[in-house]
Design brief:
Layout lengths: L23 E9 L6 E5 L6 E2 L2 E3 L7 H13 L1 E12 L15 E13 L11 E4 L1 H7 L4 H9 L5
Parallel strand pairs: 1-6
Antiparallel strand pairs: 1-4, 2-3, 2-7, 5-6
Length: 158
Amino acid sequence: MTQNLATTARTGRDNQRYGAQGERLVAGVVPLSNDKTKVLLIQSTRRGGWVLPKGGWETDEGTAQEAACREAWEEAGIVCTVVRDLGTIPEMRAAQELTDKAPKAAYQFYEVRVDREASEWPEKDKRGRQWMSYQQAKLSLQTRPELLEALNRSTITK
């Protein structure tokens, strides 16, 4: 699949897909190093801290895989290839953690091979990126159980 490498990130939720229960459909990636000893995390713009690249699956995207690879480009500046479907992960946040800006979601994650890390990407000025070992990533994702679950489903060396 060829990725469209836009120079600007999409914003807003006008084209957002929603599931049967009204949940926001989110697609994301677990980007592993070639030797599978590290994962690439990005800085969250909302909460600080580190997260996996992910975002809304939009109505003009044929598959969640396409949306996940677009998010990887926009947020982390990586061109990637999906190597494994990690499945759907249900919302794990407590009801009091859900807001209008962070509504209930269903997450579809993919393990990806990083084909290229760009020096310039759409959200470079908003987010840092960092390769981390499993243990470092596990600590960084401890407050985001849905992201930790995606990492645990991947083939990263633990």
